[in-house]
Design a protein that fits this description.
This protein is mostly helical and 314 residues long. It is built from 16 helices and no strands.
Length: 314
């Protein structure tokens, strides 16, 4: 008798015809089981496209399969299958093969001058199949090529946050802080799998009536309020001075900005106050400046000030 675990194993191993047969047997026993329906659908879909996975010389290594997966995922979501184990299993098969294609391309062309976008896509691919160790290695290489690309910082943050250790988690929060300093708009919630970010997004959704623009506007400050630890990368004096200049500029803007832009300025100011507060406490031991920052934060958002206080344990 076919078992669900056997069927999942066949999906993940990209044995799609075998998986289709196993899921068909399971559906005979439980025709309304959504997991079995999802598995049967996925197996049939990719059985008809198996050449995309087995082609030794694809026209667009890695990228073609990534796009094919995104198209399939859209269909799976419309059918209500996206959250099933069956879809996660076939994802590991397809995106695992995509990552292999990227690596083979690097081996052929050499890593002396790799394409940055390929490195980024490989990192994304590995994160989606939860291969965080290899993703981190690839993304750290990509960061050496483009050190100010905030999207790479966000992806690296997820790699560290998903390792499960406190030291790694603090490094991950540091990468999020750095990415939000550089360019917050490059944050992509589709790759935010860590519990701390998911919980923060959920809380913001409740507070901001699920308005995605407002959620993403406040995410840097809310996450920074939870990042009041010593393990973040140390901000140097030049970085602190730059944040202080930006803070003073926004404080002046807040007095005159039009109402429709006021929340954007407030959210950014709160983030800067909190980033500077973490540095004042844990890097420069400037308690007086830390209190000034907290007073300014309280005036704008008392709730964030309280969250930061709880994070520092003071």
């Amino acid at each position: 008798m076919a078992s669900f675990e056997d069927a999942l194993f066949s999906l993940q191993a990209a044995h799609f015809e075998e998986a289709k047969s196993l899921f068909a047997s399971l559906l005979e026993q439980e025709p309304d089981n959504s997991e079995f329906m999802a598995g049967f659908y996925a197996a049939g879909y990719w059985a008809n496209r198996s050449d995309q996975l087995s082609n030794p010389e694809p026209a667009r290594p890695g990228t073609g399969l990534m796009e094919a997966w995104d198209s399939f995922q859209d269909l799976a979501e419309k059918k209500g299958f996206a959250a099933t184990r069956s879809i996660r299993s076939v994802m590991r098969a397809v995106l695992g093969r995509a990552s292999e294609q990227y690596r083979q391309k690097f081996q052929r062309e050499g890593m002396a001058h790799p394409d940055f976008s390929d490195l980024e896509e490989l990192g994304k691919c590995l994160i989606r199949i939860q291969d965080y160790g290899n993703a981190r290695e690839i993304l750290q290489y990509a960061r050496r090529i483009q050190p100010t690309h905030s999207g790479i910082h966000f992806l690296l943050a997820e790699c560290f946050l998903n390792e499960g250790e406190q030291e790694s988690a603090e490094r991950g929060l540091g990468f999020y802080r750095d990415g939000f300093i550089i360019q917050p708009t490059q944050f992509d919630p589709a790759y935010a799998f860590s519990s701390v970010v998911q919980e923060t997004l959920q809380q913001l959704g409740e507070e901001k009536e699920n308005d995605l623009d407002r959620i993403l506007l406040w995410l840097p400050a809310y996450l920074m309020a939870q990042s009041q630890y010593s393990g973040l990368r140390r901000l140097n004096r030049d970085e602190v001075s730059q944040l202080q200049r930006e803070t003073h500029r926004l404080e002046k803007d807040l007095e005159n900005v039009m109402d429709k832009f006021k929340e954007k300025v407030q959210a950014r100011l709160c983030f800067y106050y909190l980033a500077l507060h973490q540095a004042a406490i844990f890097v420069y031991d400037d308690r007086d400046y830390a209190r000034e920052l907290m007073d300014s934060l309280k005036a704008l958002h008392p709730g964030l000030a309280q969250r930061a206080k709880e994070a520092t344990g003071k």
